[in-house]
Amino acid sequence: MKISQDRLVENRRRLLAAATRLMRESGCQTVGVADVTRAAGLTHGAFYNHFSSKEDLIEQVFAHAMLQSGARGFVPDDGIEAFAREYLTPEHRDDTGGGCSYAALAAEASRLSPGVREAVGTALGGLIERLSRAVPGRSKVERRRVAIHRWSAMVGALILARAVDDAALSDEILTSVLISLDHPKRGRRAGTDNRR
């Protein structure tokens, strides 16, 4: 029986969504094809209609996930601070499977194929461009630098907040970075800038 084009598109969407969630939760290497098809409610055969191998799936998950989750909900007119207040929350920290793909998957990219790193680089370049339109700076180069700094601080804070088993420390990490992003000069005056 021939599968309709609409069904093929829907199956692909389900496979990518399931794989993305599972890989955010457990990492790329621990998730198998059977796990993905089971979570998507499809058969092994459906998988191979869309992906040539697990490696192909991983590359496509990274391309899909980074583009979909990168600054999801970010509205340049609202500013990066408003986005940070939504991003650096205990709820986002606790939603590994549905949260930010950069925080959940980026560290793995360095150990994966060049195709994965290319997908991350392409998505990240576009995200930095979007963020740079919402940060202060006298030039495009300065705004880009600020955007990279702020996004790196946000993702790093989320990674570290997820890594510790101490709830108070985890919350403190999120709050401290949020305060430094909302008031960068105040943070330096308070002694966080130790350069001499």
Task: Explain what this protein looks like in three dimensions.
- The protein is mainly alpha-helical.
- It folds into two domains: 5-53, Arc Repressor Mutant, subunit A (Orthogonal Bundle); 66-192, Tetracycline Repressor, domain 2, CATH 1.10.357.10.
- The chain is built from eleven helices and no strands.
- It has helices at 5-26, 33-40, 44-48, 54-69, 79-87, 90-94, 101-109, 114-132, 140-163, 167-182, 184-192.
- Helix 10 crosses helix 11 (184-192).
- The longest helix is centred in the last third of the chain and has 24 residues, at 140-163.
- The chain starts with a helix and ends with a helix.
- Residues 32-51 bind DNA.
- This is HTH tetR-type domain-containing protein.
- It holds the Pfam family TetR_N.
- GO terms for molecular function: DNA binding.
- Residues 9-69 form the HTH tetR-type domain.
Which tags fit this structure?
196 residues; mainly alpha; 2 domains; Tetracycline Repressor, domain 2
Describe what is shown at a glance:
Helix content is 72%, strand content 0%. It is mainly alpha-helical.
SSE inventory with pairings:
Layout lengths: L4 H22 L6 H8 L3 H5 L5 H16 L9 H9 L2 H5 L6 H9 L4 H19 L7 H24 L3 H16 L1 H9 L4
Helix pairs in contact: 1-2, 1-4, 4-7, 4-8, 8-9, 9-10, 10-11
Keywords: DNA-binding, Transcription, Transcription regulation
Organism: Paraburkholderia solisilvae
InterPro entries: Homeodomain-like_sf, HTH_TetR, Tet_transcr_reg_TetR-rel_C_sf
